[in-house]
Amino acid sequence: MRIRPPSTSLQWLIVAGIFHMGITTVVFAIGRLALVPWLVDTDGLTIGIAIDNKTYRGVQQELVYALSTSGWHGWLAQTAPLHTRLYSLSFALLGKVFGGSILAVEPLNLVYYLATLTIVYMLGREIFSAQAGMIAATITAILPSSLVLSTQLIRDPMSNMCLLALVLLLTALGARTLTWGHALLMMCATIVVVGALWLARGNIWSIVVISLLTALVLVVVRMIGQKRFLVVNAIAIVIVMSAALVIPRLLESTTLPDTKPPIAALSLQKANNDMGMFTRLLMQIAERRDGFLHSYSANTSTIDNVRLLGAGDIIRYLPRASEIGFLAPFPNMWLALGGEVGRTGRLASGCEMMLMYVIYVVAFVTLWTERRRLQMWFIFIVATSGMIGLGLIVANAGALYRLRYSFWMMLFVIASQGILAISKRLMPDKF
Length: 431
Known about the structure:
Layout: H1 9-32, H2 52-77, H3 82-98, H4 106-127, H5 130-142, H6 144-149, H7 156-175, H8 180-200, H9 205-226, H10 231-250, H11 277-295, H12 311-327, H13 331-334, H14 342-369, H15 374-393, H16 397-403, H17 405-426
């Protein structure tokens, strides 16, 4: 009997869901069998790749204990990041069956994974076509390191999903001619996503603000090009921007116990009220970079042991930050012995980076051939800003690798159009 491949989006999502559950099971089995104990523990946590798994596991255990002994009041009284609260509920429901393993949080991680694939697909469809969206979603689904980390207890799966959802909503706000009804729904959805991002990962707030400003600029460019005033679109983005400036003042970003909550430099937040936004931003860049240098001082994955003490230092470091943000880990690190992941882990990251170099080339070619698409430039500016920002702040190649995934996924969308064009030339009968 001939098995037909999936033909609808729902069928593809079912296939992706089964695939993710299979990968989670494999990662758990590798840990339980102690095949690589320095990399994966008996619960399936990749402690060699994401050491913060240990910290988050401890917080989740405390939340589950508080819920079982003190009820919802005790659970809410605990200081904890948003993603750990959600994971603790999954542990409370399934922990008796699966213990403290990654299998207990797979239902939630599966939602994040499928939602991320759906958003990437919709972003590709919004900017280019459904075929391009499917290519981008497929690359996102199978990227090995991202796939493995999507099974873990870290905040990356949730924050990546939220950031991509924000980019999708802003792309639609800028590209479509909205009615008041649609604008109201999109404004509400965007404000909710912005609030979730602040609660889940407040230290990327500057990228949120840059995304909003870029969307506003592109709406203005579109109005100039079309010689008409898009009242609804402009008002919608201004309202969302206003909400983004106020949210950090109204809500405290969630963080670990005994850890100072992040301060949003580009906001109306009360803290550091005596400083301007630009001064606060420069201070944050310097302080966060110093934090990474201190945390990874003995790590062989540290890229540059350079401190940035002011605006001049930051401006002069921008070319190097761009190089690091896009290209690190560099080829000279691929065969070196990694502090946590060993030589095998470094080699695996090198293989992924070679793939990314190809995707960069295809993406840059697409930028030229599709240069009239404003929506494409929007996601490129957001992705580039994010990666350069990471190059400025994150001095460790391993940490940089993890934080870059959402921006890579935006570039997958751009490259997918180039891959589709190449495929049509090579296999015209199939496309």
